[in-house]
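Practice problem 4.
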C-alpha cells in the first residue's frame, strides 16, 4: 500500500454513522417510533437521533434518516434520488469528520461516478483502485491531509453507499 502525505483514516466518521445505524436497529423503539414489529395502520413516521458514543468527541452528532444539523452538504452532496440512511458530523475535530450513508436504486458504478465528479470538482484527486474485494470503493485526497472514502454495496437492486470525509474545518461547508 502506498501512503500519500499523512492520510487520516475516514474510519472514525464512518464508525459514527455505522454506530448510529446499529444503535437505531438494536435499541428498543421509543414511544411513537414505528418499527416493523410495532407498525400500525397509521404508519407513523419518526426520526431518531443517536447520541454520540462515549469515545466520540463532544462536538460529534449523528442522526438516522436525515442530515444532521450543520452537515457539509457542499462537501458531500446527497446524490439526486438517494435516500438518507444516516449522517454524522464533527467540525470540532481536527480534521473535521463527516459521514453520510444513503441508498438508491442505481448501480454502484453510477454512485461512484456521481461522487467522483462531485469531489473532483472540489479539487480532490482519485487514488488508483476501484474495489476492495467485491465492494466498489474509491478513495480521494486533497493536499496533504484531506481524504474522502466512498464504498458502495448492492443488494436486490438497491445500492447502499457510505461516504466519509476527513477535511480541514474550513473545508467542511
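Answer key:
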Amino acid at each position: 500500500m502506498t501512503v500519500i502525505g499523512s492520510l487520516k483514516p475516514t474510519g472514525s466518521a464512518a464508525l459514527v454513522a455505522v454506530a448510529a445505524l446499529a444503535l437505531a436497529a438494536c435499541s428498543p423503539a421509543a414511544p411513537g417510533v414505528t418499527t416493523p414489529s410495532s407498525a400500525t395502520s397509521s404508519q407513523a413516521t419518526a426520526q431518531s437521533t443517536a447520541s454520540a458514543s462515549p469515545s466520540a468527541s463532544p462536538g460529534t452528532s449523528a442522526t438516522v434518516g436525515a442530515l444532521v444539523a450543520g452537515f457539509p452538504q457542499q462537501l458531500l452532496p446527497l446524490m439526486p434520488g438517494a435516500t438518507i440512511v444516516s449522517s454524522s458530523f464533527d467540525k470540532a475535530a481536527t480534521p473535521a469528520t463527516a459521514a453520510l450513508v444513503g441508498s438508491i436504486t442505481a448501480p454502484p458504478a453510477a454512485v461512484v461516478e456521481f461522487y467522483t465528479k462531485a469531489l473532483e470538482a472540489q479539487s480532490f484527486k482519485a487514488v488508483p483502485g476501484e474495489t476492495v474485494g467485491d465492494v466498489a470503493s474509491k478513495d480521494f485526497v486533497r493536499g496533504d491531509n484531506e481524504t474522502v472514502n466512498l464504498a458502495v454495496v448492492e443488494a436486490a437492486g438497491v445500492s447502499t453507499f457510505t461516504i466519509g470525509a476527513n477535511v480541514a474545518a474550513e473545508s467542511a461547508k
